[in-house]
Amino acid sequence: MSGREPRVIVIGAGVAGITTAYVLRERGFTDVTVLEKGSDVGGVWYWNHYPGLRCDVPSQIYQFGFAPKPDWQHTWATGTTIARYHRDVVDQLGLAPLIRLDTEVTDLVWDETGHWSLTTAAGETLIADFVICATGVLHHPFTPDIPGLADFAGPVVHTARWDDDLDTTGKRIAVIGTGSTGVQVVSALQPDASSIDHYVRSAQWILWAPMSIRQLPGIAAVLARFPALHRALYRMMAFGGSALLTDVTTRPSWRRRAVQEYARLCLRIQVRDKELRAKLEPDYQPLCKRQVVSGSYYRAIGSGNAELVTARIAEVTAGGIRTADGTHRDADIIVLATGFAAHNYMRPMRLIGRDRIDIDDAWAKGPRAYRMTAIPGFPNLFTVLGPNSPTGSISLQYTSELTAGYIAQWLEKFRAGELTTVEVTEQATTRFNDDVATAMGPTVWNTGCNSWYLTEDGNIDLWPFDRTTMNQMLGSPEPADFHLT
Ligand code: NA7
User: Fold this and answer.
1) In 3D, which of 126, 93, 96 has the Cα closest to residue 108?
2) pTM metric for this prediction
3) Is residue 184 lining ligand 1, measured as CB closer than 6 Å?
4) How far is CA 329 from CA 172, 184, 275, 312, 478, in A?
5) Ligand 1 centroid vs 178 CA: distance in angstroms?
6) What confidence tens digit (pLDDT) does each residue in 88-106 have?
7) How far, in Å, CA of 154 to CA of 144, rounded?
8) Centre of ligand 1 from the C-alpha of residue 260, in Å
9) Which end of the chain is more exposed for a tag (fewer CB within 10 A), N or C?
10) CB neighbours (10 Å) of residue 275?
11) Cα of 197 from ligand 1 centre, angstroms
12) Distance between alpha carbon 147 and the CA centroid of its chain, in Å?
């Protein structure tokens, strides 16, 4: 069989899409197009620009291994800085010509003659031999179904679609949601607000960290001067951080207990008011939900103009929010920090695979894939940061690079003429998912709390293994797990 250059379309130009474009370009693939629905690259860092936005992972870890940045201004970078970094990486590595912005894919249909047909929102049709969905996890804002929300007289803004023209100074602000976003936005808006009410359905453990601390002077110059040292340091920190997080989250140990004790200590030491402390104390183990890190929230919520509201929201009125105990609190602005539909992946795009299988049917019991990247019934389609990605433990940039390298090996087989289609078997996918379910047993995510890690069926959509296992699983393809033609 004689091979040819595969036509590859990557959907999404966030962390996963940028990494995939880079890896495929480095492996010599010349027909790669990245379609991005946003007007700029960066994915979640393009769409999110609410006040107080910072990454909850230190910047020296949260960056591309192939493009480490020496001059992070802060140890925990702001959203603006990270968005800028992504743009710079794309420009400096010459990836921009591969990326088409403002191009949303609405339909992705497998043509039984052996290729994918993509339709864009503008009505254009594109053909690809392979499609790689790098569509992200924290992508589709979740808007809760609260009675009366549509009747509120003032602005209602979701944090993931922040209106930069919104003036919050001197206003009465209601913030709903207490994940990382709610905690950051309350901390940022509280000082200039007339009043801020934080509506908390479930309390969060909050680890104290000096998030706005600046990177030590001189570090940037040293790292820029010695790139090899910088890369080595990056690997040490990213791998060390992943190992530590994997350890504390996936099995009970003294290290897990130590981090949990630290979370309890943060609350005890920082909140002296016993009544407030009782309201802030969660009824589940620290680390069960995605851990919130903040250096300022406890101070903000303890301020005179802030109130923590734990009563259930009954309804939104034209002028504010009424809770189930009958209390009405006036508000000028409602901020929804209510997170994301984290298990949509490429949907609501219409995705139809072999024998007209619809992804909604294939995933009727929740998203499932083989080793985060391949889905039975969907030949020549891969995901990067797909189901069971390690969003709670291992570097997502590293995971993206490893997955893209794995996919590249399949593309090389196509190019060499060794295959025209590749589709993971149902058996291999079931085996992988059974192993995942077993490994979830001792994880801290399985200790009884509600979080965006859980699918509707209660499955934990995370990676319960360590990085070494990930390297083994994505090191090289196992043809026995696939149907090849
Ligand atoms: P999260 O962590 O999913 O938080 C969403 C919050 O919204 C959470 O506190 C929810 O309460 C709350 N929520 C959702 N629906 C409602 C209703 N109907 N009423 C009251 N409260 C509600 O999203 P984030 O954006 O903060 O963070 C996502 C990730 O981004 C984060 O983990 C970091 O990795 C970065 P619940 O806890 O479900 O009771």
Assistant:
1) 126
2) 0.97
3) no
4) 9, 22, 20, 13, 59
5) 6
6) 999 999 999 999 999 999 9
7) 17
8) 20
9) N
10) 9
11) 16
12) 29
